[in-house]
Amino acid sequence: MPVLGFNITKVEMEKASTTIPGGQIQVRLSPRVNEMRLGEIRTPTGKMNGVEILFRYEVEYDPRIARAGVEGALLYLPPQKDRIDEILNLWEDEKKIDPVTFAEIVNFITTEVSPMLMVLAKEMRLPYHIPVPRVELKTE
């Protein structure tokens, strides 16, 4: 797995309205990379270098009934270890991430953060930010 370590540093969810309006509620998920730098993790076999990524994952409701945000850091190890310098140089020069790396990072963060945000939404009586599967009966 390309992500070796994961740490959440901040979680916030704010309810902006006491009533949930009827009708359609749209939710926008916005994963953002704030910073990338060389990082390391200690393993039983020694230290291992990787790309430390500081991120913010935001959830915004429309109409504006609530908003949420999670900040944290993760240590990413590309499949080819020699790509670490290439990834960091692209970030330092252009503040960009290649699409494959970005997809892996966002998928990992979404998988880790979504369950926590769903629990918070449930406790605050807010709609979930992702659809929950529902059973529907067929009428004949």
Descriptive overview:
The structure is a single chain. The protein has 140 residues and is α+β, with helices and mostly antiparallel strands. It has two helices and four strands, in the order E-E-E-E-H-H. Strands 1-4-3-2 form a four-stranded antiparallel beta sheet. Strand 2 and strand 3 (46-62) form a beta hairpin. It is elongated, with a radius of gyration of 18 Å.
Number of helices: 2
The amount of beta strand, in percent, is: 35-45%
Q: What pattern of helices and strands is seen along the backbone?
A: EEEEHH
Q: What is the share of helical residues?
A: 25-40%
Overall average pLDDT: 89
The rounded distance between the terminal residues' Cα atoms is: 47 Å
User: How many strand elements?
Assistant: 4
Radius of gyration: 18 Å
Order the strands across the largest sheet as they lie in space: 1-4-3-2
Largest sheet: 4 strands, antiparallel
Shape descriptor: elongated
**Structural class designation:** alpha+beta
Question: What is the element layout, followed by pairings?
Answer:
Layout: E1 3-15, E2 26-43, E3 46-62, E4 66-76, H1 83-94, H2 99-123
Antiparallel strand pairs: 1-4, 2-3, 3-4
Descriptive terms for the model:
alpha+beta
Short description:
By secondary structure, this protein is α+β, with helices and mostly antiparallel strands.
